[in-house]
Structures are given as C-alpha cells and as structure tokens.
Amino acid sequence: MFTGIGISQKDNLIEAGKEAAQKAKQELTKELSKENKEYKKPNLLMFFCTFTYPKEQYEPAQKQIIKVFEAQKQGEAKIPLIGGTTMGFFAKDKYYFDPSLMGKYGEIALKALGKVFKPLKFTGSVVLALQSDYINLGVGIGENAFEKPYEAGKISIEMAGKNLMFNPQLAYMSMLKRGVKDISKIRPVNGFLITPGGDKQGLFHDSQILEGVTSISKTALRIQGGGLCMGFSESGATVLPGFIFYQGKVYKEAVISVILGSELEIGYGVGTGFRPLKNIGLITKIKDPWTIEEIDGKPAPQVFMQVYSKYAPPNKREEFIKNFAVSSAHGYMPIIAEPGGNFFWPILPNAEKIGEKEVKFMMPVKQGMSLSLGKVTKEACKEATIDATQLMIEDIDSKNFGFVLFFSCAVRGLYLGKEYIAEIKKIKETLGNKDIPVFGIASSGEQAFYKTGSPVGTGLTITIMGISNESIFISKEAR
Questions:
Q1: What contacts 328, CB < 8 A, 6 or more positions away?
Q2: Least packed by Cβ within 10 Å: which of 87, 190, 216, 239?
Q3: Domain assignment of residue 236, yes or no
C-alpha cells in the first residue's frame, strides 16, 4: 500500500488544491521509488478542506487536482475523486481546523496558542493519493440523503458495487499463480462512507442511510465512516451539513459509498469511552424516529429528570436536569449496549431543553430500545482512541498496516481539549510505527460496528480503518 498526502494552507482553494495535489503526487512517487517502482496512477484520490473556503472554489479546485494526477491518454479510466468540507482534519501529525468556530475571542486565543503549540494549525486543504496493485474499488453517490436517507444509502452502495471490479475467486486464482498455497480465510468485502452530517434541524439520518446500504450488501460488507460539516448555525445550537465532493462536482445532502475489493487485509476498530451509570428504562412510545414520549409507560421527561437529578452538580442542578447541552458538556449521555458485548453507543440528545411531553434526540431511536445513562471522562475518551486502534489490530491479528483512516467526532474535542490534537500520535504509538501514513476527519456523526456486530449510526465516537500490507490469502503462520 502506497500513500501520498499533500497539504496546503493557501488562502485561495483553487491554488491550495493544486499545491496539495502536487505534494501528494510527489510523496506517492517517492514512496513507490523506495520499492523500486515507477509512479503509478492512484486507485483513489481524496480531497478535504476546512469549511470556510468560498463555495464557488470547490469545483475548480477539484479540477486542478484531477489535472495534476490524470494522464491524458484517451480511453483511460478516470481516478475516483471524493471528499468534502470538514470542521477539521488530522494529517502529518497535526490538526487543521478553523478557529472562527470558537467565536471572535476564542479565535484570538487559539491563534496565540497555535504559535506555541505547533501541532495546532488553522484552515487548510489536503489531498490523499492511495495506490496499490492489490486493491480494486468502487465508488458511488446517493443524493437527497436527508429527505430520502434509505434510498440515498441504497443508491450509493449499488453504484459503488457496479463500479467495483473485484472477484474474490479470481483474486485467489491469481494468488495461486504467484505460488501462494496457503489460504486462511476470505473476508467479506470492506468499505467506508462519507455522509453529509446532521441536517439544519440538528437531526442525523445515518441509521436510515445504513439501512439502505445493508438492504443491498446484507452481511457481505463491513463498513464504517463519518459525516462532514459546514460549521455551526447562527444560534450555535446545530452543526450545518457539509458539502460533498465527487468526481469534480459539488453536492449537498449526499452520501458517498466506497467499496474496497482487496487482496490485502483490512481491519476495523471503534471506541466511545462511555460506561453505564444507571438504567433509564425501556422506550415504550415514540412520536417519530427522533422523539421519545414514554419510557416504561411513564412520560419520558419525568423519567429522564429523575435519573439525571442523581448526578447533577449542586451549583447547576436545574440546568443539568433540564438542559441536555449542560449535562452533555459534563460527559453524561444516554447510551445503548451493543448486543452480547461490553460496549456502549452514545445516543446524542437534541441540544434543546427537555420538553414537557417528550424528549428529542439527534440520533434515531426505536420502540423497545433499552436506554441507560452513560458517562465519559477525559481519560476514558483518550483510551477510546487506543481501544479502537487495538480492535483494528486484533481484527487482522497484525500491526503491519500501510494506511490508516479514522473519523473522530468533533464533540470529542470538548472532552479531550488539546489531547484531541494528538489523535494521530496515540494511533501511531499503539501501532508501534511512527512512519505509517495516518489521516483523520473531525467528523459530525459516525457510522461504525463493534467486532462482528451490525453497523449503527452514532456520535461521540472514533471509528478507524486500516489497510494492511499483508494478503488475505496467506495465513499468519506462513507470513
């Protein structure tokens, strides 16, 4: 697996995209030369930028990137290009984001901090170029992801499947021709998603998108991913959905599916850091997928306030009990348990105050779902990154990764503080390899699965995927 990562902080995104692409191509060429290989066109290009660049520059910036990488040969297949706008991204052991998120005075303070704390960088664009002879991939896009999330997920994965040129049986025969006699397992096909984040009402549709995806893929596809964003609404209560980049064009409210048909092992991991404190109860009545009316047959607001009151700090008791934004800032969140595992998914409540007759959530809920009150600390949040990386290692029983992609919820930054900037560092330390290419997105909503479980839409989560340098057709003993 060979990777080139290029970054530019130029003010003009068209120029920044071109510079980042040139750097990525140069780095990819260098990495290939280390193995005595000549430059090859990448299998996949990814382009992300902080959300404050002018929208009219998104499309021409993509065209500049394509121009840097595309050989002008008639009939040659185009390189897939995907990406979008982000709240921030992690690359080259640094974190790039727009400090205007923190308000005028926060921006001044952060820029002062950035002069001292070198891993903290402001605004920028990044281009990733991935190349391997042992990976085929298909990409697809589905639109209207807020109005029709199920259909968007279904269409995107169908398109990706049609664009995928990979046959596991043919791949195995190819390996046999190379002299490989030992096969340990053939994994399901793998992949990842890029979603638009939450809508303008602060509602996330990731669960419905995943339902559309799995309606086609069934259990044959393992998939994780994360959402993009365009900053906060004027009130600051909701995160605006991000713009999606796909094949040189710009989309709103869309989802991208990427399927990897790989002869290389691909490992996955996930972490939240949440632990259960107290059972809330069973959801017995919902108004819609985001609104609970009754828990255990009682009014949901009454049940929530009773449970939350036991953990309210004396000086903020009233706010803590009635305002989810306050309790969430203290690390308290409703959670659900992963079936059969000691793992817990946070279910983000809406930032509004608890209603008189109902409780609203940002993530969809279902009748019959059992809720608990969970707690996450800064230390547990740090451990979640390590846990996710360790799960990825255990997934393929190896640390020999060639590239790692992760999505870390931007809200985790509230709990981690400056430790959030060190996500890449923790991943590399856990892998025991400081030179491995690692890239991450400060995501808005995540899609993930725990071990062999089904994928879920969630938040306050870190998801991680690693493409290894080892073949799925060679057993551990034969390596």
A1: 348, 349, 351
A2: 216
A3: yes
